[in-house]
Structures are given as structure tokens and as C-alpha cells.
Amino acid sequence: MRKYWWKILSIVLIIYAIFGGLSFPAPDDVEILGKTIRNVSYHVPMWFTMLILLTVSYVYGLKYLANNRPKDDSMASSFIKVAMLFGLMGLATGSFWARFTWGFWWIEDPKLNGAAIGMLIYMAYYILRNSIEDEIQRGKFSAVYNVFAFPIFIVLIVIYPSMADVSNHPGAGDSAAFSSLDLDNDLRKVFYLATIGWILLGVWVATLKYRLTEIKRKDEEI
Fold first, then answer.
1. In sequence order, what are the residues at sequence separation of 6 or more whose Cβ sits closer than 8 angstroms to the Cβ of residue 159?
2. pLDDT by residue for the chain (222 residues), tens digit each?
């Protein structure tokens, strides 16, 4: 039972985030964002989770290059796949937020464009990976690709938007990040716990994906 505590915690926190994010009072005086500020408990944690998973994948990609263990390749590819899922959910919740905040589902913005390009880079990772039949060559190619893709992704979603002169996205360009002016104590009670819950859920799903990948790999070896 003790080894499952963090999985139970993730479920509890996600349920709390869903109901808390929708029911807790939201400030009425948030400029432009208004009541849509509630989405911060869903949209932002999705990207945090994705970054955590991609970081883990990057580490295991380096480990595979160092020792050529198939398990490390399985771990790296599994975490990228689940990270992509959270990235897509981040894009979806962000697009929904943009529609009610800016009036459009998508706008020309360095943060949004960088995130979209980054997702395409990792989509290409899987397309190219699945085109290689040899397990060793597939693992090496994936690891090398990951070594270059992750830093580029960080540049696209963190460094490039911060260098832009103008941006509508909070925390990018000339736009201020979320602060005490946007998040009151009620929202913070949900946001911080929601972030922990989504990250734990992401790690849980990624480890399940890893186990399924290993089962499939071992069946192919028989």
C-alpha cells in the first residue's frame, strides 16, 4: 500500500483541482482575463507536467547513448509520448482560453508559435522513430534526436518568447507573468495542488506506458 500512496494522492489532487478550480471564488477585477483565470489550474500544470516528462526522457536518452540498454530507450520514448499528450492538452486548454480572452482560438504570438513548432518537432521524432525497424538503430537515432530536440524545445517555449518585444501571453515579451494581481489566495490553494496532481498523474501514466513498451519489446524478442 505504501508504494501506491503517490498514485492515490495524484487522483485526490486531480479531483480537487477539477472541482476546486470550477467552484472556488475567482477575483472579479482581473484585467482582460476575468473569470477565465480559473483555467490557470489546468492549462499551466499541463505544460509543467510536459516539461518534467521531457526532462526525464532527455536524461534516459543520454543514458541509452552511454550504455545502449534497451530499457533506457523504452523509458525515453514512453515519457516523450505521454509528454506529447500533455502538450496537446496544454494547447487545447490554451486555445480555449484564448477564445474567451482574446476573441480568437489562435493568435500570432511568439509563445504560441514556439509551442506549436516544438510539438511538431516531437511529432517528427515519433514519425521517424517508427520508420526504423532495427531496434539498436532506432534507439540510437531516437536518443541523438532527443539530445538536440529538447534544448531546441526549451529555446522555443522559454527563451525565444522572453526575447520577443511584444506578446499577449503572460510571462512572454512585454506581458507580465501571473502574480498576486491575478491569483488570489483562493486560486493559489487550487493552482499549487493542481500542479502537483497533474505532474504525479503524468509520471504515473508514463511509467505505465513504459511497462507496456517493455512487454511489447520482450514479446518481439521471443
1. none
2. 567 888 899 999 989 888 877 776 665 555 556 667 777 888 889 999 999 999 999 999 999 999 989 999 999 999 999 999 999 999 898 888 778 777 788 877 788 888 889 999 999 998 988 888 888 899 999 999 999 999 999 998 888 777 766 666 655 544 545 554 455 566 777 888 889 999 999 999 999 999 999 888 777 665
* CA 169 from centre of chain: 17
- Whole-angstrom CA distances from 46 to 109, 174, 189, 196, 201 are 19, 23, 17, 11, 10
Q: Residue 199 in contact with residue 45, Cβ under 8 Å?
A: yes
